[in-house]
Specification:
This protein is mainly beta. The chain has one helix and 44 strands. Helix content is about 5%, strand content about 50%.
Length: about 525
């Protein structure tokens, strides 16, 4: 029995290390042997912090590196790289954090590195970025192939500004428009506080402060003020009559459609210019626009008539085969034919011509003593009358209204430029030379077709090419005066109330000429 006991004792002692090894490594839960996948890098302090933009954290970011057997890994390089802040409302934003060595006073870099000490630890300082959101710092240990990241939450800074919806904006007459404003930090990141709104002097707008909404009651301009604490901002709100315009951009050599509030820009025709402008006009259906242009690469003499479908953008160039050497203006009629004031090689002087759909050109009536000048004539929408600038017998110029059927004319005024019939042909607008800027510019005036009720809007200078609203309530034209900058000015004919129309392109303010109102 003793011998058996000794044998069993020896067997138990022999198997015990094997059993212990199996128990320790069978499920990997408490092993101390080598584990190639066990290397790691992780933060032990300074991660997961929430602070405001630009704050430099007092607690360093400390990370610890362990090798494959779980021991501290001294003397290895840890790389710290910042990632973009994640804030969908502000796009990609700027980097959400900056990093630097402990010896640097102010962190400004997107990358830093440190070598682990005897405890396998490396550390850096972190400064929050300028964009609120979730900021990440990526950790990497190239020697061990390790990657990890730590995150921070960046919040807006203290109130530093109040931001109005815009410095200048337009709202349609009679329509409520929401103009939200924001309190921001010093980097213009929005904060949750709500500023108060108030109106400046005037009666152009009404204000619903609770909804941050204004409604235009009459055309004109009024200031909207935004305030929070000691911070103030303002918006110049222009109330404009709603409408859609055909305009010519001389710098871009394009004819476009655009709303009076500056929205919904559509290019109708490109490579449009001439010595006598473009002067786009809507046809009676308001679906087509006619204009004239030169055929040279730089524009040149106005010898080509262009018709554009505003729906399909189909363009028809009638070209030089019509035989015009100069075209002053054209007006499409209900039957599709065109009436044209111009000069042809076959006839001396200027006349009114008819161009039919098949390209046939025929003379309608001559225009005695016509002055060949920029925007010197207009045709009534029904084609029964022509208003034009003529040489006066006594010298100078006079404004004549000619009856197309009889060829007779009456004189409305002298020494004026750029006539334009109202849509109803009961009035004529024109320019009186101002002696400023271009000799073609002038002060707008309106007169009845009978010659009565002449009215001048003496404080505003316009470029050639006035337009009327379809109901005859408003005049508009390119502002050419010393104030108010580029844009079209709308005048209410009854009392001279006015407002500027401004058109903003990409990094520029568009300068439009020769508007016509759909």
């Amino acid at each position: 029995m003793k011998s058996v006991s000794r044998v069993m004792h020896r067997m138990t002692c022999s198997f015990l290390p094997i059993l212990l090894f199996a128990a320790c490594h069978g499920d990997g839960s408490a092993g101390v042997g080598p584990d190639p996948a066990g290397a790691s890098v992780h933060a032990v302090a300074g991660a997961g912090v929430t602070d405001t933009v630009d704050a430099q954290l007092t607690q360093a970011l400390i990370v610890e590196v362990r090798d494959s057997v779980g021991h501290a890994a001294p003397g290895v390089v840890v790389r710290f790289e910042t990632q973009q802040a994640s804030n969908p409302a502000q796009g990609s934003g700027s980097a959400g954090a900056r990093v630097c060595a402990l010896t640097v006073a102010y962190c400004s870099n997107y990358f830093a590195s440190d070598t682990t000490d005897a405890q396998g630890r490396a550390n850096i300082l972190v400064r929050m970025g300028t964009t609120p959101g979730n900021a990440e710092v990526r950790l990497s240990v190239p020697e061990l192939g390790l990657l990890d990241s730590v995150s921070y939450t960046v919040t807006p800074g203290a109130p530093a500004h109040v931001r109005a919806a815009a410095t200048d904006t337009a709202v349609d007459l009679g329509v409520a428009a929401t103009l939200p404003s924001h309190v921001t930090d010093r980097y213009f990141n929005p904060r949750p506080e709500v500023p108060t709104l108030s109106l400046g002097t005037g009666s152009v707008l009404t204000l619903d402060a609770a909804k941050s909404a204004v409604t235009g009651t009459v055309i004109g301009t009024q200031w909207l003020y935004t305030k929070y604490d000691k911070f103030v901002d303002s918006t110049s709100v222009r109330v404009v009559p709603p409408g859609r315009l055909a305009v010519w951009s001389a710098p871009a050599r394009e004819v476009r459609l655009v709303n009076t509030n500056g929205s919904s820009v559509l290019t109708l025709a490109r490579s449009v210019s001439s010595d006598f402008g473009a002067f786009p006009h809507f046809d009676p259906s308001r679906q087509h626009v006619t204009l004239h242009a030169g055929t040279a690469s730089y524009g040149g003499p106005s010898t080509n008539i262009v018709i554009v479908d505003t729906a399909s953008l189909a363009r028809q160039d009638l070209g030089t085969t019509l035989g015009f050497t100069t075209i002053i203006t054209e007006r499409q009629q209900v039957d599709g034919s065109l009436l044209v004031v111009g000069q042809r090689t076959s006839v001396a002087g200027y006349s009114l011509w008819r161009v039919t759909l098949d390209g046939t050109v025929s003379a309608v009536v001559g225009l005695p003593s016509f002055v060949s000048f920029y925007d010197a004539a207009d045709i009534s929408r029904d084609g029964t009358r022509v208003v034009y600038v003529a040489s006066a017998t006594a010298g100078g110029t006079e404004l004549r209204v000619l009856d197309v059927t009889s060829g007779s004319y009456t004189v409305l005024a002298t020494g004026v430029l750029s006539p334009r019939f109202s849509p109803q042909a009961d009035r004529v607008a024109f320019l009186v030379p101002s002696g400023q800027y271009s000799s073609a510019d002038g002060i707008a005036s309106v007169i009845d077709i009978s010659g009565a009720n002449r009215k001048s809007f003496g404080s505003f200078v316009f470029s050639p090419g006035l337009g009327w609203s379809p109901d005859g309530t408003y005049l508009l034209g390119r502002n050419s005066g010393p104030t108010d900058g580029a844009g079209l000015r709308v005048l209410r004919v009854s009392d001279g109330a006015n407002v500027m129309l401004r058109f903003r392109g990409t990094n520029t303010v568009e300068d439009y000429y020769q508007p016509d109102w759909r």
